[in-house]
Each structure stands twice: as structure tokens, then as C-alpha cells.
Design a protein that fits this description.
The complex is a heterodimer of chains A (157) and B (324). Helix content of chain A is 82%, strand content 0%. Chain A is an all-alpha fold. The longest helix of chain A has 38 residues, at 3-40. Chain A is elongated. Chain B has 324 residues and is mainly alpha-helical. Chain B has three domains: 1-75 and 288-324, ATP synthase (C/AC39) subunit, domain 3 (Topoisomerase I, Chain A, domain 4, Orthogonal Bundle); 78-176, V-type ATP synthase subunit C fold, CATH 1.20.1690; 178-286, V-type ATP synthase subunit C fold, CATH 1.20.1690. The longest helix of chain B is centred in the last third of the chain and has 26 residues, at 288-313. The two termini of chain B are 26 Å apart. The model of chain B has no long low-confidence stretch (mean pLDDT 90). The chains are: A mainly alpha (157), B mainly alpha (324). Chain A binds chain B through residues 29-30, 32-37, 39-41, 111, 114-115, 117-118, 121-122, and chain B through 5, 7-16, 18, 282, 284-285.
Chain lengths: 157, 324
Amino acid sequence: MTTGTIIAIIGAALAAILAGIGSAYGVRLTGQAAAGVVAEKPDLFGKLLVIEALPGTQGIYGFLVAIIVMIQIGALSGNIVPLTMEQGWAYFCACMPIAIVGLLSAIYQAQTGVAAILMTAKEPSASAKGITMAALVETYAILALLVSILLVFGIKV
Amino acid sequence: MPQSSYPYANGRLSVIAQKMLSSGFLGRLAESGEADAIKLLRDAGYGSGAKNPNDVEQLIAAELSNTRELIWELTPEPEIIKLFLLRTDAHNLKTLLKAKLFDIPADDMMAEGGAFSVALLEKAVNEGEVSALPKTFAKAIEEAESVAAKSGDPGLVSATVDRAVYAYIFLSLKKKRNAFAKRYFSTQADFTNVQSLIRARALRWEAEKLSPMLVSGGEISHERITECLEVPAAQLGSELNVGQSGPAIEKALKEYSLTGNPGGLERSMDRALMEMVREGKNDMFGMGPLVGYLLGREAEARAIRVIFASKLAKSPVELPELYA
């Protein structure tokens, strides 16, 4: 295995790890707030579950980018491609948008999500507005995912 | 059992706090007859578990007890939330020390719901058993007893207890990164000192007599406060406009200079303190909502007492500042 290949694998791993950490932390925050509200108003469980799940998507995006990189470098088929240093760094850099934006946007989305959960607790009919507010933070995770995917597909192996 | 998470605590509280009594509800309470008012309170779920649901004091006691139990259950930082209960301990300590000074029973005047049990404080004052109390408190009891023996002045006993309580609060907060609690108690210390200054001016005290009455932890230095004994009343506000609570102090003192009513000054400061607590209402990752709920329920209890007292006295109601 070349150093270039190892650098590409580190990039893929970081995409999955950082975005995954952000999502786990985010879902933890929204989950705690939702649990608090549901303890008093069990009928709100369905509405709050959607908001709680929102920060979980960044982890999926990171996982997706990591899988695409692994497929491209042959890590899944067992025929690992010997990448040059330049190719390795190119994969590493391509993974960074979703790794970093995924980590941060999941945390910020969770904070908005907690506010939306409390708004729903006070006014259950406003849950759709709360979901929309929290979902808007997702835009930037989606943009980062797109950039990562386009960069990964643009690398010639 | 304390929770480890503010989002959980504040999530639960956001639902429970909706049951707090609004000023509109209290207005209806004030307009109703006594029996109807008690029924209104009971129907609103106030004071559930009270031994005698027809006695308003029992309803209030039950509601405050339920509130403290809930706060203990929810708070991730019991050692800080405890500081917000010390007002009751200060009252109990002062009562016990003064009762001992004048050799009268204190039982009827003791209040439940402090950070330390009434039995513990009684044991400390009456039997000298202070090992279960913080060192600051133990020292204060000793000092207050010595002050009482020397001067026989109950005012100095109260001041000794107040100083010990604030010293304990700021010692407890020293290693904590809790900006909300620090700001709250610092503002409260400033307000307490300004009120002491106003009393001292009215009684024409010298600086030497005012100094022992001042508590630590505020942003206004004790020197500045004692210097203000000589400042013309119209300039007091601008002289004491120091730190974060400065504008509120200036506003309260301006109102006071117009009315000359110390009760009004206290109400203005209570309003400013409650406003600060309200600012923390939406901080879902901090203790603001928990403290707001605790202090809000206490304010609500004061309002209910005022309403029922005014029914007895057949006088107009002036409600204290509410949280909800």
C-alpha cells in the first residue's frame, strides 16, 4: 500500500468519524430535550422524533462519502489501487468539506432543534415551523456533501 | 436524583412552567371572594398534596415544596442551585440567633425549603453542633453570637449572617464557570448594599456604622457606597451606576428620589432582578429556566399572600414582580 493510498483512507475515515461525531452529539442534545418534553407530554413523541432525527443526517453524508472513496480506491473489493501522493492528498481534501461542515452543522442544527422542540412543547401546532427552522441548517451540510462528492468523482485514478 | 443534562431538565420544565399562574389569573384571584379564590387555586392545580386544601398557607407551602423537589430532581448542578435557596437559610439563622438573644421561641417563624434543614440550623445555634455546616456558616454563627453578646443589636446579627451568606455564595462560585449565577448574585449583592445605604442615609448613620452592614461580591466597592452617605440625593443614581447592574440601580434610585419610598426602591430592584432571570428563560443549555421557575414560583407565592392579606385588610392589591 502506498503513502498516497493511506492518506486517502485517512481522509475517508475522517469524513465518517467527524460527521458521525457531530451527528451523535447533535442527536444526543435533541434527544435529551425531546425526552424531557415527552416525559410531561407523551403525545408529542411523533412530532419531536422528526426534529430529534434531523442532526443525524450529517453522519450519513460522511458515511456516504467515505464509502464512495473506498469503492474508488478498491478498498471494498480487496484490490487496493496504489495511489500517488498527489492522488492521496486529493482524496483527503475532497473528504474535508463534509467532515468539517458535517461536524459543525450537526451541532448547530441540534441547538436549533432543541429550540424547536421547546417551541413545540409550548405550541404543538407549531411543530412544522420548528422542523423547517432546524432543517434550514441542513442546507450547508448538503452543499458540503455535494462538493465532496463532485471532488471525489473528479479525481482520476 | 440530579439529571446530567440541561436540555432534558429545561425540556421538562418548558411544559411544567406553562402551569405557572399568570398575572391575569392572579387578577381574577384578587377580584374573587376568599373561598372562591382558594377554589380557583385548587382548580388550577396549585398546591397539590396540601394537608388542608382549604387553607391558602398550606396550598402555598405544598406548592413551594413540590417546586423545590422538582428542581432538585432536574438540576444538573445541585451545588449551584442550592445557593438560590440560601435566602431561606439566612432568614432561619437570623431568626434562631435573635430568638436566642431575646430568649424567645423561634418555632413559628422558621421556614422550610432552605439549602440546610431547620433541624440542622437549630442544632448549630442552640447546641453549637456546627460540624455539618460549611465553615463560613459555622464562623458566622460564632461571630454573630459574639456580636449579640457585646452589642445586643439584632441589626448587627442580621448583617453578620448576610455577610456570611454572600461570602459562602461567592466562595462556592469561585471555581465554577457559571456566568448566570455569578451575575445574579453580584447584582443582588449590589442591590442589597444600595438598600443598606438608603436606610443608613435615612437614619443618618456614619460610615463606620454602615460598613459592617455591607455584603461582598457586588461590583460597587464598599468605599464608594460609604462615600455616598454624603452625596446629594439627586446624584446618587449616577454615582452608583457601576458595572452591569449600574443602569438598573440608577433607574431605581431616580424613581426613589421622586417618591422617597424605600418599599418602591425594593420593588424596582426586585423587578430588575426578575428581568435578569427572565433573560435566561430561553437558554436551553444553562440553568436560567430552572432558576427562573424556582424564583418565579416563590414570587407567585408572595403574590398570593399579598392578595389574601389585602382581602383580610380590605385594601387595594399591589402585586410583586412575577416571572410568568
